[in-house]
Amino acid sequence: MKSTSRWIPRIAAVCLLLFAFMLVAGCHNHPNEKELKALEEAKQAALSAETKAADCAKEKASLEQQLTQQKQKVESLKQEKAAVEKRLSAWQ
């Protein structure tokens, strides 16, 4: 998950830089079709990166919740094991 969380902000930064470059390069009155297409592609890439970042954040939260539940289950089973061992030693 650490490697995923590192590249998502980088993709967003690259998209924003590309968007800024397109704005600077297109400072004349009438952008041509090529510039409009590049701008639209940059917007779509930025939206896609933001969506993917949000999805990854949701997945991370879900996995952290599952991890917490599993840790609680392990602790419960350890306590149950200790109780069984105690009863077993008292029985013998």
* Shape designation: rod-shaped
Could you list the spans in which at least 5 consecutive residues all have pLDDT below 50? none
Estimated structural class: mainly alpha
Q: How many H/I helical runs? A: 2
Mean pLDDT: 87
The rounded Rg comes to: 26 Å
Please state roughly what percent of the residues sit in beta strands, choosing from under 5%, 5-15%, 15-25%, 25-35%, 35-45% or over 45%. Answer: under 5%
Amount of helix: over 70%
The first-to-last residue Cα distance is 49 Å
User: Largest sheet, if any?
Assistant: none
Element-by-element helix/strand order: HH
Total E-strand runs: 0
Report on the architecture of this protein.
With 92 residues, the chain is mainly alpha-helical. Helices cover 90% and strands 0% of the residues. It is built from two helices and no strands. It has helices at residues 2-25, 33-91. Helix 1 runs antiparallel to helix 2 (33-91). It starts with a helix and ends with a helix.
Write the layout of secondary structure elements.
Layout: H1 2-25, H2 33-91
Features:
mainly alpha, rod-shaped, single chain, 92 residues, 90% helix, 2 helices
Summarize the structure.
The protein has 92 residues and is mostly helical.
